[in-house]
Amino acid sequence: MNKTTYLLPAAVVILVVALSSIFVVDEREKALVLRFGQIQAVKEDPGLGFKMPLLDEVVTYDDRILSLDTDTIEVTPSDDRRLVVDAFARYRIADVVRFRQAVGVGGIRVAEDRLQGILNAQIREVLGADQVTSDTILSSDRGTLMVRIRDQARAEALSLGLDVVDVRLKQTNLPAQNLDATFARMRAEREREAADEIARGNEAAQRVRALADRTVVETLSEAEREANVIRGEADAERNGIFAEAYGADPEFFAFYRSMQAYENALQGGNSSMVMTPASEFFEYFNAQGTGATPAPDAETPAGEPAPQEDASAPASDESPAAQEAPASEPASDTAPVGEPVTEPGAPTENN
């Protein structure tokens, strides 16, 4: 009874001590065995490990590739155009002993703070170096710049026991205070290009209009010249016809021209023309007195004898219409020879 009472607690104590001296290392981790803060052993391979119970402490660290997003920083390339850069890095713990010695009990949090300082310094140094402009950062040479940042950061991060696997620039933008000025400059550039295009379009339109106006003038001039030629030929043909007609019967041609003159001169009702009856204009009206051929509308109807001129009638310079007028009525439409009468407001013509 007494043996069982002592053996059972002793077995439990032995079991607890045995279990506390064993630890398991995962394939994704690395382990350090510490005794009073001092490194006693390093366990990098997965499996079981042993330590002194109650004296040793096991600290594990992630052996996978970790990610770190850096804070946004401003850099100034060689062309003095400030840029806002946002980067991230991939790293892993390469040497757990050096890592523990560098960061102490702070672990990953302290290591990432120090690694971020290294990355920011290297980003500013590489992007602010000579011959590196904002255009270079935004061009295909960006990959070369990121490799330089990674290599320089890796060299410094080795002191922390870290291996920087990769560094990438996520975003490269202008500062907010420079965006408005940049947009205004871009807008002014586009407006200038638009104005140039409009000016070139107006110039081309002016050339087209000038060419069209020239074509119109040349066409009208050519048409007018041809019209004048045709008109001249027509006038020549008309004059030839008139001359031929005049040569065929000069007396009838003179009569026809007199009829046209009567028609044109006696049109309108608001004017009067006063001239002597002996004027050549009334040659065919005075055919009986002058012996000329009478007008067609004064011909004697067929079958009636032509009136004989009275030889005993007194000779007078007045027209027959004036001689036949009653003595009691004043001749208001006729006037003595050589004394033309002009109505008020009517034009006069003296022959």
Plain-language structure description:
With 351 residues, the protein is α+β, with helices and mostly antiparallel strands. The protein has 4 domains: 2-62, no CATH class; 66-174, Band 7 domain (Tetrahydropterin Synthase, Chain A, 2-Layer Sandwich); 180-248; 249-265 and 273-295, no CATH class. Helix content is 47%, strand content 17%. It has helices at 2-20, 96-103, 107-127, 134-137, 142-157, 176-248, 250-265, 287-290, 320-323; strands at residues 22-25, 29-35, 38-43, 47-50, 56-62, 66-69, 73-75, 83-93, 162-173. A hairpin with a 2-residue loop joins β2 and β3. α3 crosses α5 (142-157). The longest helix has 73 residues, at 176-248.
Topology, pairings included?
Layout: H1 2-20, E1 22-25, E2 29-35, E3 38-43, E4 47-50, E5 56-62, E6 66-69, E7 73-75, E8 83-93, H2 96-103, H3 107-127, H4 134-137, H5 142-157, E9 162-173, H6 176-248, H7 250-265, H8 287-290, H9 320-323
Antiparallel strand pairs: 1-4, 2-3, 2-5, 6-8, 7-8, 8-9
